[in-house]
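Re: [ENG-882] Designed sequences occasionally contain unexpected residues at chain ends

Forwarding the minimal case from QA. C-alpha cells:
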C-alpha cells in the first residue's frame, strides 16, 4: 500500500505523522513531492521524496492532493497522466469540488474530499470526509482510519463542503482570536497575559467536554453559567447589544462565500 502526497506542507505533514504513528495498523509506505524538497527530507517520519509529481501519481494507491486551491490548475497537468484506474484520490483542497478536480485531472475516478483543521498537527484534528459514489467501503474506511489516527472524522455530504469550513476548518482561527481578546482584556486589568491565555485554553477544554459529555443541550449549558443580574448575563447582553451574534453570523457566511469563490478560481 503506497500513500502519495502532492504537496507536503503543514497539513500533509500532520497527516503523514498520523500514518507513521499507525504504521502497523495502516500498513502503508509514504512518498511525496514538494517543490521545496527539504520539507520532505527534514520530515522526522518515513516519507520518501520523489523527483516529480508524476512519479508520485504513478506509484500511489492513495493519492493525497495537498496543494493550495490556486495551484491545482497549474500543477494538475504535471501528474494527471500517472493516475491509475484503481487510484483513490483524496483532496484536502478547500473550495474545489469533486467535479472540478476530475475535470482538471481528466479522470472519472471518485474524489474523496476531506476538510481537516490545524489541530491535526497535535493529533487532535477534526476532519470532515465525503463518501463519494464509486468508492468501496474498504477504501473509504481506510481514508477514515488515516484521519482518525490524528483526531476525529465525520462524514459530511460532498455538496456541503463549503458550508462545513467555518465549522471545523476555519473555526480554530476564530477561537484563537477570541482567546487573544480575552487574554488582552485580562492584561488590561492587571493580570498576566500568558497565564490568562492558559486558563482560557483550559476553560475551552472543559467547556468542550461539557458539550460532549454533560447530556445538556447548548441553551441549557448557557443558562447553567448565567445567574439573574450576574456577570455572565451582563457580558452576553453587551455582546448582543453590540451586534455580536449578527456580526459572527455574517463572518461565517463570508467564510462559506469565500470557499465558493476559491472553487470558481477567484
Amino acid at each position: 500500500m503506497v500513500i502519495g502526497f502532492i504537496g507536503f506542507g503543514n497539513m500533509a505533514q500532520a497527516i503523514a505523522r498520523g500514518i507513521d504513528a499507525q504504521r502497523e495498523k495502516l500498513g502503508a509506505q509514504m512518498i511525496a513531492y514538494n517543490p521545496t524538497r527539504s520539507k520532505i527530507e527534514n520530515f522526522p517520519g518515513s516519507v520518501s521524496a520523489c523527483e516529480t509529481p508524476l512519479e508520485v501519481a504513478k506509484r500511489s494507491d492513495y493519492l493525497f492532493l495537498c496543494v493550495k486551491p490556486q495551484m491545482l490548475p497549474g500543477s494538475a497537468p504535471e501528474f494527471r497522466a500517472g493516475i491509475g484506474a484503481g487510484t483513490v484520490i483524496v483532496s484536502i483542497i478547500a473550495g474545489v469540488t469533486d467535479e472540478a478536480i476530475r475535470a482538471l485531472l481528466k479522470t472519472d475516478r471518485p474524489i474523496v474530499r476531506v476538510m481537516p483543521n490545524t489541530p491535526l498537527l497535535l493529533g487532535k484534528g477534526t476532519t470532515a470526509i465525503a463518501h463519494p459514489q464509486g468508492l468501496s467501503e474498504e477504501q473509504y474506511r481506510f481514508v477514515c482510519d488515516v484521519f482518525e489516527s490524528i483526531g476525529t472524522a465525520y462524514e459530511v455530504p460532498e455538496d456541503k463542503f463549503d458550508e462545513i469550513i467555518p465549522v471545523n476548518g476555519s473555526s480554530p482561527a476564530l477561537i484563537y482570536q477570541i482567546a487573544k481578546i480575552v487574554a488582552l482584556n485580562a492584561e488590561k486589568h492587571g493580570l498576566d497575559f500568558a497565564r490568562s491565555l492558559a486558563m482560557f485554553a483550559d476553560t475551552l477544554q472543559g467547556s468542550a467536554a461539557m458539550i460532549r459529555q454533560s447530556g445538556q443541550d447548548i441553551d441549557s449549558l448557557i443558562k447553567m453559567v448565567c445567574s439573574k443580574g450576574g456577570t455572565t448575563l451582563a457580558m452576553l447582553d453587551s455582546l448582543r447589544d453590540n451586534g455580536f451574534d449578527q456580526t459572527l453570523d455574517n463572518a461565517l457566511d463570508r467564510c462559506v462565500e469565500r470557499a465558493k469563490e476559491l472553487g470558481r478560481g477567484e
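QA comment: On inspection the terminal residues look reasonable. The beta strands are 2-6, 29-33, 47-49, 62-65, 88-91, 111-115, 125-129, 151-155. Proposing we downgrade this to a documentation issue.
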